[in-house]
Structure prediction request, 196 residues.
Amino acid sequence: MQQTENPSLEQMRAFLEGRQELDFHAEGRAAIYAWVERTLRRQRHPKLSRESKGLVRRYIAKMTGLSRAQLTRLINKFVKTQEVKPTVYRRRRFRRRYTTADVATLVAADQAHGRLSGPATCAILKREYEVFGNQQCKRLAAISNGYLYNLRNSAGYRRQRIDYTARARRPSRSGNGASRPGRPAGLCADRHRAPR
Prediction:
């Protein structure tokens, strides 16, 4: 930050009337707020007359480009606490109900049973705790179907889940280049055969 440090009220008035030039350069909100705090402290802002306070306010507004409302908020904060610091934004976070150990238990249950539907998995986890006394499933025994799917979609679940799926048969080519579906195999293969 480069500027004339600690200007007097007359220098501020001359600057605002355009008779004197001052150079101000600040990088970031924290630097601007620190400069505002230094300026208010050096001018002894709470003890100034009403006219002088207005002059200091216009000087700070012109130097920093802060809006009138923001400058009022910063000055009020300085009057109350004798400092001007940017407030740190704290995102509201809800308490985690299920731990990474619970997610690992869910992954183990899904791998053991082949990732059943949500209600079936909820029933398995509830029975595992209530009937067999598995303490790892204590919190998961009361999980709702919707939250089970939320856990399955979480990044922690996807990192731990190893999913092997068989590749579908590729369609075979007919003689003219058009593709047709392959023949089904297995128990239901008879249903898909063309009638003779």
About this structure: The longest strand covers residues 172-173. Residues 9-81 form one domain. The two ends are 90 Å apart (CA to CA).
